[in-house]
Structure to design on (368 residues):
């Protein structure tokens, strides 16, 4: 549904367009925004000041942003169909995630999404002489690069992406932070995104609630297949994310497709041919592709590990980390990988508002 705007009175700010800019006159004003279209369409702003009305044509989103920037911070929003709540991180719903505090020490723990974690000594025992020397001589000051430890990024580029990506095309992040950064780097209010569903909460919520985007769920189709582990080949439902279903969800203003492969929670992995078809569809439409690949290398038996999205498509962003397949969730080591220099640069800039950088000791341990 298109964003709708309504009349609203903003105190202590009137606007008059002079020399191409809006100038604060310090008095009360009523702003009427019409017609009812989303930001970025042709808009009209009417300013009522002391009984006189002046109407301006706003033909660029930047003009409207200039106007909104002048408003008092407490009132800096355009009201919409959400009853005047606006949008932003402060309006995000409570995160729907399994809460396991107090149950981690259960003798048989079957509900976790990661592997049995390694102990620190087990991990350090895998270190070669160079890594052990780096660990022993590690300074606990700020690390040299906010993009992430260079040795770790080089290891990721060569070891996990086969040299298809360079170290400078990788940004170190806390895994869940990567979703926040990428969504804010790619999307703008009013954009449309298609997201695999069900899935990890922030893959939907950040776009919908923090960025005021329209989000369409791409749900699987279920069909019966023989269960290979069953003696009598009992039929079990198997999910498939159909590309025709995805095509039907795309709109003229669709900007992003969000995939999660291997899919959590169904375990779905497309065939290599279907994976290439998905990438071709995104390329054909000029869409960004964000792929949550945290479960990569944990594919179900019989399924090949697909190339990372960032290896295959220049407008793809891959999110990965050491939490799931490597049993190192406590390190909080993750990364974004992309060949899109503009998106990577913006994610790096936004990271200054979140974690800034990873701890040096975490990066050194993660390198092993």
């Amino acid at each position: 549904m298109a964003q709708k705007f309504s009349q609203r009175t903003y105190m202590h700010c009137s606007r008059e367009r002079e020399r191409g800019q809006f100038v604060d006159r310090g008095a009360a004003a009523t702003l009427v925004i019409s017609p009812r279209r989303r930001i970025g369409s042709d808009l009209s702003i009417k300013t009522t000041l002391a009984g006189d009305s002046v109407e301006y044509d706003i033909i660029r989103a930047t003009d409207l942003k200039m106007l909104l920037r002048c408003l008092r911070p407490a009132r800096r929003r355009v009201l919409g169909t959400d009853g005047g709540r606006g949008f932003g991180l402060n309006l995000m719903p409570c995160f729907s995630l399994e809460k396991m505090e107090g149950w981690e020490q259960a003798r048989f723990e079957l509900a976790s999404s990661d592997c049995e974690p390694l102990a620190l000594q087990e991990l350090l025992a895998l270190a070669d002489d160079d890594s052990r020397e780096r660990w022993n001589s590690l300074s606990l000051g700020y690390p040299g690069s906010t993009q992430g430890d260079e040795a770790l990024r080089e290891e990721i580029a060569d070891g996990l992406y086969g040299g298809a990506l360079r170290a400078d095309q990788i940004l170190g992040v806390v895994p869940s932070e990567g979703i926040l950064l990428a969504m804010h780097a790619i999307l703008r209010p009013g954009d449309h995104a298609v997201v695999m569903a069900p899935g990890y909460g922030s893959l939907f919520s950040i776009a919908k609630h923090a960025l005021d985007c329209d989000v369409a769920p791409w749900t699987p189709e279920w069909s019966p297949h023989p269960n290979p582990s069953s003696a009598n080949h009992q039929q079990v439902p198997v999910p498939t994310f159909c590309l025709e279903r995805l095509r039907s969800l795309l709109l003229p203003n669709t900007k992003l497709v969000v995939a999660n492969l291997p899919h959590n929670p169904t375990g779905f992995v497309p065939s290599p041919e279907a994976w290439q078809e998905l990438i071709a569809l995104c390329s054909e439409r000029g869409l960004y592709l964000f792929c949550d690949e945290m479960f990569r290398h944990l594919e179900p038996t019989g399924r090949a590990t697909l190339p990372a999205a960032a290896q295959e498509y220049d407008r793809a962003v891959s999110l990965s980390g050491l939490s799931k397949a490597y049993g190192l969730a406590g390190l909080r080591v993750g990364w974004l990988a992309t060949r899109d220099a503009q998106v990577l640069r913006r994610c790096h800039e936004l990271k200054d508002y979140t974690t800034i950088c990873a701890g040096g000791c975490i990066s050194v341990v993660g390198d092993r």
About this structure: The chain is about 25% helix and 20% strand. The chain has a mean pLDDT of 77. The CA atoms of residues 96 and 201 lie 6 Å apart.
